[in-house]
Amino acid sequence: MKDEFPSLVDRAYKEYRKLHFVEEIMSNNPVTIGPEASMAEASKIMGDKHIGSLIVVVQGKPEAIVTERDLLSKILARGRDPKTVKVNEVMSSPLVTISLTSTIKEAARMMIEKKGRLVVFREGKLTGIVTAADLIRSMPDTPETIIVDDIMTKQVVISEAEATVGEIAKTMGKERIGSVIIVKNKKPFGIFTERDLLTTFLAKGKPLDIKVGNVASSPLITIPSGKSVHEAAYIMSSKHVRRLPVTKNGKVIGVVTARDLVEAYAK
Fold this sequence. Notes:
Blueprint: H1 5-16, H2 22-25, E1 27-28, E2 32-33, H3 39-49, E3 53-58, E4 61-67, H4 68-75, E5 97-98, H5 104-114, E6 118-122, E7 125-130, H6 132-136, H7 148-151, E8 158-160, H8 165-175, E9 179-184, E10 187-193, H9 194-202, E11 223-224, H10 229-239, E12 243-248, E13 251-257, H11 258-266
Helix pairs in contact: 3-9, 4-8, 5-11
């Protein structure tokens, strides 16, 4: 695999270099919701569709956005019940918009500057959305000289497998992070993410008192310290993950997210 990996990366990036504009990479037909809907309804829709955001339509017009991070930090972390909180209490506006013909580099820079997903309109009609995951599948010119150690988050939040999902959800919300590394017998075992919370629990109405070790994604997909962001982007895209723990001598020393890669590309 070690000898094969560079050629896989090279082939993947030859495909990436064919993509230049927002229209080519955006996710089409964003899912919408009304402002009076509950966040429990919003979480079920996001979980069922495996997406991290919904466009809020107010009086027939797309006006705001609500995300899985809003659910974590503004509701669960504060001990609020999603069933009693309306979308309009936590949504963010105005929408950050970008042109269909904007380049991928421009989109990356705008995403980092505005700190949010980018919404695309065609002739005044909502037509697409660009997320960090969309961008890392099409980052054509990320320098090989930038390594994951340069961009990773070094403060890794770790939890024992015996903790409950509810406890992990509160931790993620309070710390404003999207994942927690789960350990068993002091060794990295798996990862639990905000998307896991949405799709496995909130969308299905499951109780949050289950031990996280029973539901964490395992085995852990990682990247060794010293590898390039080029390789990290390929692993994330091919494995369909948005967070990639960085390891050294068997220990997790950091986490690289899709947004970290976008920021590296935007510079």
